[in-house]
Write a structure and sequence with these properties.
Number of domains: 1
Structural class: alpha+beta
Strand order of the largest sheet: 1-2-3
Number of strands: 3
Radius of gyration: 12 Å
Mean pLDDT: 88
Distance between the termini: 36 Å
Shape: globular
Length: 60
């Protein structure tokens, strides 16, 4: 088993695909992360949804 990390240095994000359920995307580029959040919100897992809503201004 290997850990894989993908970096987009120009967008300042790192992607960690963990299995067939999805991936984590992290980085300091809040605007880009918000765009991804808005575009793919229906696919987000409930696990951290409340925390993501708090960061991106959605009401829980």
């Amino acid at each position: 088993m290997a850990d894989i990390y993908l970096f987009n240095l120009s967008k300042e994000v790192m992607v960690f695909p963990y299995d067939d359920r999805g991936m984590d995307i992290v980085g300091p580029n809040k605007q880009f992360l918000k765009e991804l959040y808005d575009q793919f919100e229906q696919y987000l897992l409930d696990y951290d949804k409340q925390a993501m809503d708090a960061v991106f201004g959605k009401n829980p």
